[in-house]
Design a protein that fits this description.
mainly alpha, 9 helices
Length: 216
Protein backbone atom coordinates (compact mmCIF):
# COMPACT_ATOMS: atom_id res chain seq x y z
CA UNK A 1 0.00 0.00 0.00
CA UNK A 2 2.76 2.45 0.95
CA UNK A 3 4.70 1.57 -2.21
CA UNK A 4 1.73 2.57 -4.35
CA UNK A 5 1.31 5.77 -2.36
CA UNK A 6 4.98 6.60 -2.83
CA UNK A 7 4.74 6.01 -6.57
CA UNK A 8 1.66 8.22 -6.79
CA UNK A 9 3.37 10.98 -4.79
CA UNK A 10 6.40 10.80 -7.07
CA UNK A 11 4.21 11.01 -10.18
CA UNK A 12 2.29 14.02 -8.89
CA UNK A 13 5.62 15.65 -8.03
CA UNK A 14 6.75 15.23 -11.64
CA UNK A 15 3.52 16.75 -12.91
CA UNK A 16 3.84 19.70 -10.54
CA UNK A 17 7.40 20.32 -11.73
CA UNK A 18 6.25 20.19 -15.35
CA UNK A 19 3.04 22.26 -15.08
CA UNK A 20 2.15 23.36 -11.56
CA UNK A 21 -0.70 25.61 -12.67
CA UNK A 22 -2.44 22.73 -14.44
CA UNK A 23 -2.23 20.51 -11.35
CA UNK A 24 -3.55 23.29 -9.11
CA UNK A 25 -6.43 23.91 -11.51
CA UNK A 26 -7.27 20.21 -11.53
CA UNK A 27 -7.50 19.98 -7.76
CA UNK A 28 -9.35 23.28 -7.49
CA UNK A 29 -12.15 21.83 -9.62
CA UNK A 30 -12.22 18.68 -7.49
CA UNK A 31 -12.53 20.52 -4.19
CA UNK A 32 -15.92 20.21 -2.51
CA UNK A 33 -17.21 22.53 0.17
CA UNK A 34 -18.65 20.43 2.98
CA UNK A 35 -20.80 22.02 5.63
CA UNK A 36 -20.50 20.22 8.94
CA UNK A 37 -23.51 20.35 11.21
CA UNK A 38 -22.80 21.77 14.64
CA UNK A 39 -23.29 18.99 17.19
CA UNK A 40 -26.12 19.44 19.65
CA UNK A 41 -25.43 19.87 23.35
CA UNK A 42 -26.69 16.32 23.96
CA UNK A 43 -24.28 14.93 21.33
CA UNK A 44 -21.42 16.95 22.76
CA UNK A 45 -22.12 15.65 26.26
CA UNK A 46 -22.49 12.02 25.18
CA UNK A 47 -19.09 12.06 23.48
CA UNK A 48 -17.36 13.65 26.45
CA UNK A 49 -19.04 11.40 29.01
CA UNK A 50 -17.79 8.34 27.13
CA UNK A 51 -14.29 9.80 27.02
CA UNK A 52 -14.21 10.63 30.74
CA UNK A 53 -15.48 7.16 31.64
CA UNK A 54 -12.54 5.69 29.71
CA UNK A 55 -10.20 8.33 31.10
CA UNK A 56 -11.06 7.53 34.73
CA UNK A 57 -14.36 5.75 35.44
CA UNK A 58 -18.15 6.09 35.22
CA UNK A 59 -18.36 7.96 38.53
CA UNK A 60 -15.89 10.59 37.31
CA UNK A 61 -17.93 11.02 34.13
CA UNK A 62 -21.10 11.32 36.21
CA UNK A 63 -19.73 14.27 38.19
CA UNK A 64 -19.15 16.01 34.86
CA UNK A 65 -22.61 15.42 33.42
CA UNK A 66 -24.31 16.29 36.73
CA UNK A 67 -22.59 19.66 36.86
CA UNK A 68 -23.35 20.52 33.24
CA UNK A 69 -26.99 19.53 33.75
CA UNK A 70 -27.13 21.93 36.69
CA UNK A 71 -25.88 24.74 34.45
CA UNK A 72 -28.36 23.79 31.73
CA UNK A 73 -31.25 23.90 34.21
CA UNK A 74 -30.23 27.38 35.36
CA UNK A 75 -29.88 28.62 31.79
CA UNK A 76 -33.07 27.06 30.43
CA UNK A 77 -35.39 29.94 31.47
CA UNK A 78 -33.28 32.22 29.27
CA UNK A 79 -33.94 30.04 26.19
CA UNK A 80 -30.20 29.63 25.66
CA UNK A 81 -27.53 26.94 25.77
CA UNK A 82 -24.44 29.06 25.18
CA UNK A 83 -23.30 28.90 28.80
CA UNK A 84 -24.05 25.18 29.04
CA UNK A 85 -22.08 24.52 25.85
CA UNK A 86 -19.14 26.56 27.14
CA UNK A 87 -19.12 24.67 30.44
CA UNK A 88 -19.50 21.34 28.64
CA UNK A 89 -16.40 22.09 26.58
CA UNK A 90 -14.12 23.65 29.15
CA UNK A 91 -14.99 21.68 32.27
CA UNK A 92 -14.21 18.62 30.15
CA UNK A 93 -10.94 20.20 29.05
CA UNK A 94 -9.92 20.66 32.67
CA UNK A 95 -11.11 17.24 33.84
CA UNK A 96 -9.31 15.39 31.03
CA UNK A 97 -5.85 16.79 31.81
CA UNK A 98 -3.18 14.67 30.18
CA UNK A 99 -1.13 13.12 32.94
CA UNK A 100 1.12 10.05 32.89
CA UNK A 101 -1.80 7.62 33.15
CA UNK A 102 -3.59 9.24 30.23
CA UNK A 103 -0.48 9.27 28.04
CA UNK A 104 -0.12 5.54 28.74
CA UNK A 105 -3.80 4.88 27.99
CA UNK A 106 -3.75 6.77 24.69
CA UNK A 107 -0.55 5.12 23.50
CA UNK A 108 -1.91 1.64 24.19
CA UNK A 109 -5.36 2.33 22.80
CA UNK A 110 -6.23 -0.10 20.00
CA UNK A 111 -7.20 2.71 17.63
CA UNK A 112 -3.74 4.23 18.01
CA UNK A 113 -1.85 0.99 17.53
CA UNK A 114 -3.98 0.06 14.51
CA UNK A 115 -3.31 3.45 12.94
CA UNK A 116 0.43 2.98 13.40
CA UNK A 117 0.24 -0.50 11.88
CA UNK A 118 -1.60 0.86 8.84
CA UNK A 119 1.15 3.41 8.17
CA UNK A 120 4.11 1.04 8.04
CA UNK A 121 4.95 -2.28 6.43
CA UNK A 122 7.39 -4.99 7.43
CA UNK A 123 9.46 -4.79 10.58
CA UNK A 124 9.47 -1.49 12.43
CA UNK A 125 10.25 -0.35 15.94
CA UNK A 126 8.44 2.26 18.02
CA UNK A 127 10.63 4.65 19.99
CA UNK A 128 8.96 6.92 22.54
CA UNK A 129 10.63 10.19 23.52
CA UNK A 130 9.60 10.94 27.09
CA UNK A 131 10.61 13.04 30.06
CA UNK A 132 9.45 11.10 33.14
CA UNK A 133 9.08 13.73 35.89
CA UNK A 134 10.56 11.44 38.54
CA UNK A 135 13.73 10.53 36.65
CA UNK A 136 14.32 12.96 33.76
CA UNK A 137 17.22 15.38 33.86
CA UNK A 138 16.70 19.13 33.45
CA UNK A 139 18.35 21.69 31.20
CA UNK A 140 19.74 25.08 32.25
CA UNK A 141 16.21 26.54 32.17
CA UNK A 142 14.91 23.90 34.53
CA UNK A 143 12.94 22.13 31.78
CA UNK A 144 12.74 18.35 31.68
CA UNK A 145 14.83 16.77 28.93
CA UNK A 146 13.22 14.03 26.84
CA UNK A 147 15.07 10.79 26.22
CA UNK A 148 14.30 7.83 23.93
CA UNK A 149 12.73 4.64 25.26
CA UNK A 150 12.55 1.44 23.23
CA UNK A 151 9.66 -0.97 22.58
CA UNK A 152 9.75 -2.22 26.19
CA UNK A 153 8.08 1.04 27.18
CA UNK A 154 4.84 -0.19 25.63
CA UNK A 155 4.62 -2.89 28.29
CA UNK A 156 5.17 -0.24 30.94
CA UNK A 157 2.46 1.88 29.32
CA UNK A 158 0.04 -1.03 29.51
CA UNK A 159 0.69 -1.45 33.22
CA UNK A 160 0.50 2.27 33.92
CA UNK A 161 -2.77 2.65 32.02
CA UNK A 162 -4.36 0.05 34.32
CA UNK A 163 -3.26 2.09 37.34
CA UNK A 164 -5.36 5.14 36.40
CA UNK A 165 -7.58 4.47 39.43
CA UNK A 166 -4.74 5.85 41.57
CA UNK A 167 -5.12 9.26 39.92
CA UNK A 168 -5.62 11.93 42.57
CA UNK A 169 -5.37 9.51 45.50
CA UNK A 170 -2.65 9.43 48.20
CA UNK A 171 -1.04 6.55 46.26
CA UNK A 172 -0.66 8.66 43.10
CA UNK A 173 3.08 9.30 43.01
CA UNK A 174 2.73 11.40 39.85
CA UNK A 175 0.00 13.53 41.41
CA UNK A 176 2.35 15.05 43.96
CA UNK A 177 4.05 17.36 41.46
CA UNK A 178 3.17 21.06 41.41
CA UNK A 179 1.76 20.72 37.89
CA UNK A 180 -0.62 17.89 38.78
CA UNK A 181 -1.78 19.64 41.97
CA UNK A 182 -2.48 22.76 39.93
CA UNK A 183 -4.49 20.78 37.37
CA UNK A 184 -6.74 19.32 40.05
CA UNK A 185 -7.10 22.69 41.75
CA UNK A 186 -8.20 24.33 38.51
CA UNK A 187 -11.15 21.95 38.26
CA UNK A 188 -12.34 22.95 41.72
CA UNK A 189 -11.79 26.65 41.04
CA UNK A 190 -13.62 26.48 37.72
CA UNK A 191 -16.66 24.77 39.22
CA UNK A 192 -16.75 27.32 42.05
CA UNK A 193 -16.57 30.17 39.52
CA UNK A 194 -19.47 28.76 37.50
CA UNK A 195 -21.50 28.20 40.67
CA UNK A 196 -21.04 31.86 41.53
CA UNK A 197 -22.08 32.94 38.03
CA UNK A 198 -25.28 30.91 38.32
CA UNK A 199 -26.39 32.77 41.45
CA UNK A 200 -26.92 35.98 39.47
CA UNK A 201 -27.47 34.64 35.96
CA UNK A 202 -29.87 36.66 33.82
CA UNK A 203 -30.27 37.71 30.19
CA UNK A 204 -28.00 40.73 30.61
CA UNK A 205 -25.19 38.72 32.21
CA UNK A 206 -25.47 35.60 30.07
CA UNK A 207 -22.94 36.60 27.39
CA UNK A 208 -20.35 37.62 29.97
CA UNK A 209 -20.93 34.42 31.94
CA UNK A 210 -20.34 32.34 28.78
CA UNK A 211 -17.18 34.33 28.04
CA UNK A 212 -15.85 33.66 31.54
CA UNK A 213 -16.74 29.97 31.18
CA UNK A 214 -14.51 29.80 28.06
CA UNK A 215 -11.41 31.09 29.83
CA UNK A 216 -9.74 27.68 30.18
Amino acid sequence: MQIDNNKAAFEWGRRCAHDLAAVQALFKVAQIIEFVRKPSLAEMLAKRVDFLAAYQNAAYAQTYITFVEKVRAAEAPLNSTQLSEAVARYLFKLMAYKDEYEVARLHTDRAFTEKIASMFEGDYKLIHHLAPPLTAKKNDQGELIKQPFGPWMRSAFGLLAKMKGLRGTPLDIFGRSAERRMERALIVEYRACIEELLTSLNAERLALAAEIARIP
